[in-house]
Amino acid sequence: MIASDTLSRWQSAFPFWISYLLIPLIWATSAAGGWWVLLVPLSTWWAFAVLDRLTGLNLENANPDTPDEVLDWYIWLTKAWAPVQFLTLYGLIWYTTRATGLTLFEKIGVFFGMGVISGTIGINYSHELMHQKGKLERWLGDVLLSMVLYSHFRSEHLLVHHRYVGTPRDPVTARYNEGFHRFYPRVLRQSLKSAFHAEKDKLARKDRPWTDPANPFWRYWALQGAMLLLAFLIGGWAGLGLFAVQAGTAIWQLELVNYVEHYGLTRKYLGDGKYEHVRPRHSWNASQKASNWLLINLQRHSDHHYKPSRRFPLLQHHSQDAAPQLPHGYPVMTVAAMIPPLWRRIMNPKVRAWRRQYYPEITNWHPYNKAQNPGPRT
Description:
With 378 residues, the chain is mainly α. The chain is built from 15 helices and 2 strands.
């Protein structure tokens, strides 16, 4: 077990700061133009897949009782990203809309890469921030989500996904045999709807209408509107279009990861609208070292659902006995998810093995496959 005094050293946190190298990289590639603009997505998908093979697995666990006071290097990592991403995004809008040497294709390529950054890093860091108690961290999480026009993710994730994961009420739990290209439009539609209704129901329990100022959707819409207006003021209609390319790419990146994290994993229905408690077995776990540096241990997703408020350096690795393991890290698995026949060939046998290991008593999986079990009681 990694001791608290070891975690407090900057050297322990240093590998997780690797994401900041993507900022000078995207500026360099936007200045170079040409096919160089594709270097950012290639570095996050392919370079980290190679690094995972070279660095192997990290099976060590930190002391989960480590206090925040010794985690400053990790906490500032996520706090600092919001202003860095903001300046990079709007700086690129200013630069590309005035760069006569860049073709339209190259400009779109730059903002596709920016979307990979704001989705892979920005939304991931907002996910870490939204789970914390401090108002500043939650506010920074909101700012990051507004930059990709996906602010409702906070409500959906905290009020719906964590509560109902692995049940028919959770849109984000990818169903067995459901390809990503069917999952994606479904989750876009259902997540927005479920997030809004979750906040509406929360207010209704206090006898307040959805129009009450306490509804965070007012904040979401205001922040998103401000981000769109700023993009227009800096870059005109072209800037607004490039901003939209970035946001759409980021959302696609997020939902690819969501698809991978829970594919085919369902909680056992106990009858009378009740489901078993969430356990590490209800999320896919991955301990590839390099991609966990980039993704601040997001791949230790089994422990995140087991202990949602646990900060990322303290997330625990769970062995095969406690949680199902992905064969590769997210860089490889998200690419595989885009090719449904390949995905099913890799993952369907693993889902069936998971069912035999944890739920040998269930003989009829059809209701689970089609999300036809009764919804959990609210």
